[in-house]
Structure formats: C-alpha cells, structure tokens
Amino acid sequence: MNIKKIYLTNFRNYSSLELKLNNGVNIFLGENGAGKTNILEALSLASVTVSYRTRTDSDLIKWENDSAEIRVEYERYGVTSEIKLILHKRGRKEIFVNSNKSSAKEIVGNLTTVVFSPEDLMLVKGAPSLRRSFIDREISQASPFYMDNLMRYNKVLKERNSLLKQLKEGGSRELLDIYDMQLARYAAFVAAKRIEAVGRLDKIAKAIGVEISSNKESFGLQYSLSGVENISEEYYLKKLKEMRERDIMRGSTGVGPHLDDLIFTINENELKKYGSQGQQRTAVLGMKLSEVIFLKEEKDEYPLLLLDDVLSELDEYRRNALVKYLKNENITTVLTATDDSYIPKDMGRIYTVGNGEVSSKETL
Ligand SMILES: Nc1ncnc2c1ncn2[C@@H]1O[C@H](COP(=O)(O)OP(=O)(O)O)[C@@H](O)[C@H]1O
Ligand SMILES: [Mg+2]
Fold it and tell me: How far is the CA of 36 from the centre of ligand 1 (A)?
C-alpha cells in the first residue's frame, strides 16, 4: 500500500492542503498543536471512514465552516485509486471511490491502515472496550462481511436495550423474542471471527516478540468470553432467555460479545497483572506490528502504518528494532514527532508542519 497524495479542504486546522507522499517513511515534524496528528487522522478516515479521536464529524470540520473534504490518492496492487470523503456539519458524510458514490461498507478494506498512538499504550491496562475496538478495527479491514455483521449486532443490541427499558414498565414481549433471535445469530458470528483472529494474532505476536524485546520474551493474546461456555447461536439464544428477567430489571443486555475482552500475555501469564511498564509497551508495539502482518497476510500488501508520536515513547532498543523492521520490510509509514532527536538518520522524507501548512525538505 502506498499513498500518493492527500488533499484536505477545511479539515481541522487546514483550509486547503495538497501534499505528495513517498513510498517508505514520511516524517512529519512540528510543535504541539501544529496539525501533525490531523494528517494521520485524515488518512485513517479515508481508511475506515471514522476518526479514532472523535465520534462527531463536526469536530473534524474547520471552525466556522459547514463541510470538509478529504481526498486520498493511493496505490494498491499497482493500481491508483482515490477515496473522497465529504463531511457535513449536519447530515451524513458522503463517500466516493474514483468519483463514484460509495459507502463505508464498500470502502473499508481498500486502503488498509494500522494506527499506533500514545493512547494505545493503554491497550493492556485500559478499559476492555479499547481492546474490543482494536480487534474489531483489524478484522473489519480484512473482512467487510465481519464489519457488516458487527454493525448489525450493535444496532440490534441498541434496539433491544431500549425495548428492555420499556418492558420494565410492562408490555408485550413478542418483539424481544425477535431481537433475541437476531442477536444470537450475530453474536455467534462476531465471537467466532474474533476468536479466530485472536488465535492468529497470538501466533504472529509470539514470533514478533522475539525480534523487538531485549529479553526474548514471548508475548501473546487470548480471547476471554464473558459469561458463556460456548459460542453457538443456540447457546446464545438460551442464555438470552435465561437472563431475560435480569436484563429487563437492569435495562441492558448481560450476555454477548459486547462484554468480551482480550488478555495480553507474557510467557503465558497475564501481562496486566505481571508485566512491567516496559513489557506492556513492548507488547503493544508487538501487537501493532502483528496487526500489520495479519493485514498483509489477508490482503497480500502491507497496510499503511501511522505512527503518532510513539518513537519518543519507546526506549532505544525498541525504537531501533521498530525502525529496522520498517526499513527491512519496506512498509509505507507516516510518522509524527515534535523534533528529530528520535529519528534515525536517512530514515525518510521530512515534512515540517506549522500554521496549517506543510513544507518538505529533501531526505535528512
Ligand atoms: N475543527 C477544527 N478547526 C480548526 N482547528 C482545529 C480543529 N480541530 C483541531 N484544530 C486545531 O488543530 C490543532 C491540533 O492539531 P493536531 O494535529 O492534534 O496537533 P499535533 O501537531 O500536536 O499533532 C490545534 O491547534 C487545534 O486548535
Ligand atoms: Mg499530535
């Protein structure tokens, strides 16, 4: 995967930006607040249509404007295509591929990306929802069918939860029977896909860990089901029925993959409990690189890697291991940093970001 050009109009702090990127590593330098992350965010939006920083499109539109445009020209399997997003202050975003109207479902998986930002360092210790979105983002890019089922699952879950709240006051439970059947079907699919992906990531991570950890630790990943013994559709349906009175009391659904979690391991022990801060960082780096390899296996091409301010967060050993890996595998990368002190010489093309503008020098 290579990115050729980015065009931004009224996106975040950019009024109008046209930027040519290179294969290999692209380095964006600039002070805090200059607009570096905004560029990664735009690329990620072109990939998965939603931002990893906000759920609200209007946050992305330059203040005092009503719409924003992101256009990204990328090359995949040697063919150049363009994804265009038009964001509106009010109303849904519009999505185009090569000027043809398209949808999130159709484009996710075209321009694949893996983002690694300082917030990801919370992946091991933070809330389970972070780990679920990590795995969902990854599988969705490999399989549009998964994304579709996940979206349906979430929609039925939301509808079921609001029905539960109504039923607390009484009323017919016929609709609940229908929701339960739908939910059980999507739940079984989502859980099965996640378990399969986690199994593969676990294998990849164990191999990668050896390259990036100084002590040759073995990092892994396990899927943790919440309150169920198996993941068949029939079983989920049975559980939903069993939990029904409790669910109505609480107004929420107490069983399903929306409650599952991932467990990071080090030498087969739970990392959250036993790992040092440094080991947790290595594990996250390892997991991100495993995601890169996973998507390469799925798509035959490396995804675009977006590294936001992470070089300064890694110690020298891990930083060098990462840089060596990117170079050896020739993974197109866009990375940001506040200065070049952590950037090895000859790493790639340097861009300077400031005042809503970007300029580029020759390679360091
Ligand atoms: N919707 C918006 N309209 C205009 N400017 C914005 C908007 N959202 C964020 N900004 C500006 O973007 C800058 C932050 O950009 P960011 O890419 O996060 O910086 P950094 O270089 O530190 O990564 C801030 O100056 C902020 O004021
Ligand atoms: Mg930033």
Answer: 8
